[in-house]
Amino acid sequence: xxxxxxxxxxxxxxxxxxxxxxxxxxxxxxxxxxxxxxxxxxxxxxxxxxxxxxxxxxxxxxxxxxxxxxxxxxxxxxxxxxxxxxxxxxxxxxxxxxxxxxxxxxxxxxxxxxxxxxxxxxxxxxxxxxxxxxxxxxxxxxxxxxxxxxxxxxxxxxxxxxxxxxxxxxxxxxxxxxxxxxxxxxxxxxxxxxxxxxxxxxxxxxxxxxxxxxxxxxxxxxxxxxxxxxxxxxxxxxxxxxxxxxxxxxxxxxxxxxxxxxxxxxxxxxxxxxxxxxxxxxxxxxxxxxxxxxxxxxxxxxxxxxxxxxxxxxxxxxxxxxxxxxxxxxxxxxxxxxxxxxxxxxxxxxxxxxxxxxxxxxxxxxxxxxxxxxxxxxxxxxxxxxxxxxxxxxxxxxxxxxxxxxxxxxxxxxxxxxxxxxxxxxxxxxxxxxxxxxxxxxxxxxxxxxxxxxxxxxxxxxxxxxxxxxxxxxxxxxxxxxxxxxxxxxxxxxxxxxxxxxxxxxxxxxxxxxxxxxxxxxxxxxxxxxxxxxxxxxxxxxxxxxxxxxxxxxxxxxxxxxxxxxxxxxxxxxxxxxxxxxxxxxxxxxxxxxxxxxxxxxxxxxxxxxxxxxxxxxxxxxxxxxxxxxxxxxxxxxxxxxxxxxxxxxxxxxxxxxxxxxxxxxxxxxxxxxxxxxxxxxxxxxxxxxxxxxxxxxxxxxxxxxxxxxxxxxxxxxxxxxxxxxxxxxxxxxxxxxxxxxxxxxxxxxxxxxxxxxxxxxxxxxxxxxxxxxxxxxxxxxxxxxxxxxxxxxxxxxxxxxxxxxxxxxxxxxxxxxxxxxxxxxxxxxxxxxxxxxxxxxxxxxxxxxxxxxxxxxxxxxxxxxxxxxxxxxxxxxxxxxxxxxxxxxxxxxxxxxxxxxxxxxxxxxxxxxxxxxxxxxxxxxxxxxxxxxxxxxxxxxxxxxxxxxxxxxxxxxxxxxxxxxxxxxxxxxxxxxxxxxxxxxxxxxxxxxxxxxxxxxxxxxxxxxxxxxxxxxxxxxxxxxxxxxxxxxxxxxxxxxxxxxxxxxxxxxxxxxxxxxxxxxxxxxxxxxxxxxxxxxxxxxxxxxxxxxxxxxxxxxxxxxxxxxxxxxxxxxxxxxxxxxxxxxxxxxxxxxxxxxxxxxxxxxxxxxxxxxxxxxxxxxxxxxxxxxxxxxxxxxxxxxxxxxxxxxxxxxxxxxxxxxxxxxxxxxxxxxxxxxxxxxxxxxxxxxxxxxxxxxxxxxxxxxxxxxxxxxxxxxxxxxxxxxxxxxxxxxxxxxxxxxxxxxxxxxxxxxxxxxxxxxxxxxxxxxxxxxxxxxxxxxxxxxxxxxxxxxxxxxxxxxxxxxxxxxxxxxxxxxxxxxxxxxxxxxxxxxxxxxxxxxxxxxxxxxxxxxxxxxxxxxxxxxxxxxxxxxxxxxxx
Length: 1424
Prior knowledge:
The protein contains 8 helices and 106 strands. The chain is mainly beta. Strands 1, 2, 3, 5, 7, 10 and 11 form a 7-stranded mixed β-sheet that branches. Strand 68 and strand 69 (1002-1006) form a beta hairpin. Helix 3 (188-198) packs antiparallel against helix 4 (204-211). The chain is flat, with a radius of gyration of 57 Å. 22% of the residues are buried.
């Protein structure tokens, strides 16, 4: 439960901060806005002195929402000079309790914190943080919200009692002061009304049927009033609400519902209830909270994770205690007996998912790629008759349909993959594939059998549940019967006691009333409201007494009739029903009794009235009115239902009464109707029917049937969808044929209620009014006129008419006739001999819509200008011309003739009649075998035979190196076959051959020459290569070398080439790396997989064939030769200093083979998660994005492979400019010396390289001089302290990043004794002070660590003042800006800020004046 603080002082950005919060008095000043949003600054003075500033927040506190009992912490960082004072306050209450509200300050991080341990709902409030100094104040506001654990029942009851003193509305009493409402389980009646308030109208009927509401009209009336009240309440907090999406279950084991809500105040609190009890939720998606709220703009999405059957119930969303939406979450007890399985389908094939449930369900939710699926052209969802087998059919699968599909039933779900294998046939690439008729995913399981077993199990479970319910009902009836017996006995005892009392009271009247009064026991039936039992019965009372059960009311109570016994006497009567008793006095109005009665006119009866468990007692005196018996009459078993009917179709209304003897009357719109020509009223037993034979618009209205005072109503809605006139439709569907350039008209009469939308289409494209298209609409008719039609306008013409009731279409054909197109080539020559020319061609592409009557032929002899008409040759695209001259060439013109006209002509290529058509060239002759005295060749005949048969072949040969071809066979003896053995060869010579074909026309062209072949006996295959080895390798290549195999006469001949083959270790087949034999004895295999295992072999080959393969002894790994890891950088830093907050980056290069494992360690342990390690080929990088002091340490890189390992360490020191030391004190222990001591710097414990530097200033020189450096303790003794002078000392903290601000000591001095000063003036003498330069103090030898500063100094004397020049390695440094050189009163100094390796060397100083020259030298050594 949320406990949100009440923001009583909402100070926004830009508003002034007043009041006296935080113990501050109201001060007037200048209002300023801080750079930090939500912070307001008040400046007390107009101008702030230089170096001073008003307070401000660099980090303001953040609003908190935490659970009750946790620790709440607000943090803030403020700046200002002087240091601001920080205070806290709250809007409702004080924070004086220091144990509850702990105000703290951290000197290191400069954070001011307010800690509230073990928070409760009382601490939920608005808090303010004030920062104040003499120049101004800054203030910011923060809110603390508390989530209460459980419902504080006593507290809320107390609040309710306190608030009940004032008369307020009942609805307001139920609302709590903090915006929530009272938590209590919902009653059934309250639940159904909350569901109806948020339900769609179409769901009212099913909700009423589920909860037993029969008074539908009464429900609607009450619901309308409740909606009006609810809308008024919601309008206080919500501007607009809509798109209420009920709760749905997803495949991720979660359920969600959505609301589109525009809040008037975005800070309004939203609460979630389940069955009237508040449930906590979170707005963070990554938290493991069961209930979650996500807000996207104005959309609120509530999610329930990790669904469980206990999550079922009514969920409500409240805004500030007002319910705005309710949704009922029902979880059926269902499981998957058979889950959906993975389906692999081919492209254009259907895929089927199917599952079996344990409980029948009308439908389940199917999901595809996290989207719900519906029945459409793509998906077909079916359910078996027993509602246990559910199927999803994915039609015409495409690769895009691949993905995860899920079935969701209740809170259970199962999912599986659909894998669509694309068609890889290259012939169909880019073409539309044909739809396949097969189906993928049909399971081998017998789902029908499994479903039958589940259905039998379900029936058994239901029967067991019914038996248990009946047993519980019998137990209740027995208990109630025993209670009735006890009540009867108690009543008899009370009656006996009363009779005894009456007998004693009337002893004096014994003569008057000697005989006892007549008593009568009467059975009487009364009506009683009881709650229904669990199995739906009316309860034990109704079952025991045998009364007729009434209908269930809206409140869930059932009215039953109970028969009771009534004992009467003349004075008073008592009726006892169970434990309820009432005594009447005086006359009564007539009681309504159902059933028979045995009362006489002068007898009294007793009315039994039970109402909500309360009993009453009343005495009756005087005569009673006569009771009347009322017959309940007939009633409806089923009433009329609304129906819709199309014009021209029949309609029927039916109702059923409880009695066959009752007649009724029918009314339409309040007027009585009877059977007529169009209406038939009939009765069949208890059924009463009204049938309309041919519905028209006049039959629309409200119909009522009345019988015996009962009535039922329904409405007939007459729909008039568009329809076509049958005769007009017959005419329309007849195709229309017109000639080109003419017009075509289409007319269609139709009927239907206006307004209607009429659309015309031609070949699927909608038509509109244009220059050649005209569309006219009149009442009941539509006309389409197409002018100047072309052949391309032929096609399907469709009219589509639509109104609010439906759509209808009609289709016809338009055929536009035109002249045919020319015949199509190419010309096919069947025969072209000296006697005839027989040719064929293809018909026209478009015959113009008409049948081809004839082809018209013309012929021209090549070389002449005239064309000879051959006339009409018929409708067949074939012609045989016998009137030809041998050797002549002819050309033909062909036209197509139809009833519309003649096409353009097609002119053919030239055709020669019986000409000398030489054959083409045969294929290249192939050497079959070669010997020293014979070479056998073979070839294939030419594809172009020249129109006649091949008579034989001529063959020629040529020696290698010669240009002359010689015949092999005599010219008059052609070679008949397609093989030939050439015997006219010389042993050892190399030959090539060519062949030409011969037909009736003669010899054709020669073929391409064959390859050269030696006239010698066949060679033997070569042997195995020698010394096959690997010379080099990488991750993708392998270099081989070998020696030629030996040449053994008549056993192994010389190798002409080599083939390299490889085989992966997991593959038994060898792959050849080179398609053509190589002649070199080395080869590089490329395209290997890194670190893969391969077998390699080499095969030598020659004209005799391939020899035996030679394999390597062992497999080869695709990797470079093994190399021990080694770092390749020439110089690597082993120490690095990084300022805190900056990034630290260290790169290192290495080489190793095979690929090594790179590991980084910090202080021999793993590096932290904030450190990023990037490894590449031959390099590694360590990156700390934002270094902190805790990152200081020794980082070690370990590079390791199968050959060995190598490590390297670097020390990374993360530091910052040190904080100044504490107060400095000066003390004199020894005369002439003082001891300077100071408080250590706060950074001393965190930085082991921190040291101190001391500077001194006296009252005479007024300059600060460094007197000591690299002090690692907190004391220093200064010497040569002169009496009578004021001394001050400054102490600096220094580390690798620099020095801190100084801490200064107070002035310190030694009072000197003043003696009388006597001055003796000597006689003045002329003195010559000129002298050459001379070094009084020489340079000292220096050794400095790398990165630190180095200070050199010496003293020189001379008059005139000598000119001083510094040298390093004999190079002048006076103009070098990297060295700070000074000369003060003869003290020459040089400062090097950061010493590096380049500064190593000999340093020399030369002093010169006109009288001479002096020099001094030293050496500087730089250590790592």
